[in-house]
Design brief:
- The chain is mainly α and 487 residues long.
- The protein has one domain (12-483).
- The chain is built from 19 helices and two strands.
- The protein has helices at residues 12-27, 34-52, 68-94, 100-118, 122-140, 147-178, 183-201, 211-227, 236-243, 246-271, 276-298, 304-325, 328-354, 371-374, 376-390, 396-410, 414-440, 453-471, 474-483; strands at 57-59, 64-66.
- It has a two-stranded antiparallel ribbon with strand order 1-2.
- β1 and β2 (64-66) form a beta hairpin.
- The two termini are 36 Å apart.
Length: 487
């Protein structure tokens, strides 16, 4: 059988990202301004991704899908890595880890996320997940002489290995049941299996009617829950967020979470769509517990990175509402919120990084005492991000939560939306506590901000986006609806 060259058009962003990530590794030997090459490489990949928008493409016999859904997520990944590079330049210089491998690993991790978003086959999904995860493990331990960073990398690696095992077990079981790893063909086979079960039992399928299928769904739910830091698979997040370099924490808080939701949406709403009763029964308690644990435990945190880790856990619970809704509107609300979350969360971490200077980490919430009097602009920026994370209008966070909660209400999960609103109100305590420290306390000592042009640009982008989307949300949600139209 003659070899037929697959269409490389849909996979061009990934090819560009791979070539330029390798270029950074080589250029590290001769070029000092490695961040410039990293920035140019990301910009190149972003342009290619943007040019593909609106033109769906399937290649490698359906194993790789470049549709509007995956392209929307890829633009989030690009935004995440661009903002990460901007806030990294000064920070890694202070930490004395300004190596080319840092940027290369960020690009390879992003490449894995892009593969996950476009995976039309479970094998490609797994390869993308491992490329993303292995790069993230190394990045978490990039501060080699910091014990907490070493601890973060080891914990992330060990627990991530369990998540990979869950996913592989789920893939092997679903392959045994359906004879394929193609996500869309799995959907057809699962529909057939459930149809046969209904006929044989003369009643709607019960969760335990087809126990191998149920077990496979449980394995997938466990693996993806780890990637989005959902309870009870959240244990790694606080320690890893605290121990990893702060710029890496910002990167991990958005990228892997977005990739997790990308595959969660595609697998559950495509491969397991016919078994919706089963997986909604699994995800509903996970979502409720995730919102509860994230918001309640965050109250007692004194380290701002750990607080933002539990905040990230809680926001994963909110976004699960869109998946549970199981509609195109629900998925659109997840896409919309993920984009908003990228802006407000990376903006908050950018302010945390500004407080980092020689001999001063600025990780404790008490370090923000009186910041409004010593650095009013930095305090005002942090206030905007805290308001947005809380969901206070007219910020983007409010609009994001509004669409998420309404999608759950429209799908009939009113009590779950009410639960989300209650826990969102609880979150105001620990977000606004930082605002109280900044504006209602006297400064203990003069804090020197390590501002840089990169951080200033990242903060300008994020704060403008948070405010503009909060006032004019229709454009973003319209694009998100187009991306989610396939569901």
């Amino acid at each position: 059988m003659p070899f037929v060259m697959p269409d490389l058009g849909p996979v061009m962003p990934e090819i560009v990202m791979t070539c330029l990530a390798l270029l950074i590794l080589l250029a590290d030997l001769v070029i000092k301004r490695k961040e410039t090459i990293a920035f140019l490489s990301i910009a190149s990949a972003a342009i290619v991704t943007y040019l593909l928008a609106g033109s769906a493409g399937i290649t490698f016999k359906g194993m790789f899908i470049a549709d509007n859904y995956s392209l929307f997520f890829k633009l989030i990944f690009m935004l995440n890595v661009i903002l990460t590079v901007l806030i990294s330049v000064k920070y890694i210089a202070i930490e004395k880890v300004n190596f080319g491998e840092y940027y290369s690993l960020i690009l390879f991790s992003t490449l894995g996320m892009m593969l996950m978003a476009s995976a039309g086959d479970l094998i490609v999904l797994y390869l993308g997940l491992e490329l993303m995860a292995l790069s993230a493990y190394v990045l978490a331990g990039f501060l080699r002489h910091d014990i907490k960073s070493n601890e973060a990398a080891i914990k992330y690696f060990l627990l991530g290995s369990f998540a990979s095992a869950f996913l592989l077990y789920g893939i092997s079981m679903i392959y045994g049941l359906t004879g394929t790893t193609d996500i869309y063909k799995i959907g057809e086979e699962v529909n057939r299996l459930i149809g046969e079960s209904k006929i044989s039992t003369s009643s709607p399928i019960h969760p335990f009617t087809h126990s191998p299928l149920l077990l496979s769904i449980v394995m997938f739910a466990a693996a993806f829950s780890f990637k989005i830091a959902a309870v009870p698979f959240h244990m790694w997040a606080p320690d890893v967020y605290e121990g990893a370099p702060t710029s890496v924490t910002a990167f991990m808080s958005v990228g892997p979470k977005a990739a997790g939701f990308a595959v969660l949406g595609r697998v559950f709403l495509t491969a397991f769509d016919a078994a919706r009763i089963e997986w909604t029964g699994i995800l509903i308690p996970i979502a409720a517990l995730t919102m509860a644990v994230g918001n309640i435990v965050a109250i007692s945190q004194t380290n701002i990175k750990r607080m933002l880790a539990y905040s990230s856990i809680a926001h994963a619970g909110y976004m699960l509402l869109g998946i549970i809704a199981g509609t195109s509107e629900g998925m659109a609300s997840v896409l919309n919120y993920m984009l908003i979350y990228a802006f407000m969360n990376i903006g908050a971490f950018a302010v945390v990084i500004m407080l980092r200077s020689e001999g001063f980490k600025g990780d404790n919430i008490s370090d923000y005492e009186g910041l409004a009097k010593t650095h009013p602009l930095a305090a005002a920026l942090m206030l905007v991000f805290m308001f947005s994370l809380t969901g206070i209008p007219p910020t983007a966070g409010f609009m994001g939560k509004f669409y998420l909660f309404m999608s759950a209400v429209s799908a009939g999960y009113v009590w779950l939306a009410v639960t989300a609103v209650i826990f969102s109100a609880i979150s105001a305590y620990f977000y606004l506590r930082i605002v109280m420290y900044m504006y209602m306390k006297e400064p203990k000592a003069e804090v020197q901000l390590s501002a840089s042009p990169g951080i200033a640009l990242a903060l300008a982008i994020t704060v403008i986006a948070v405010l503009v989307i909060g006032v004019l949300p229709s454009k973003v949600i319209s694009v998100a609806r187009i991306a989610a139209a396939g569901f």
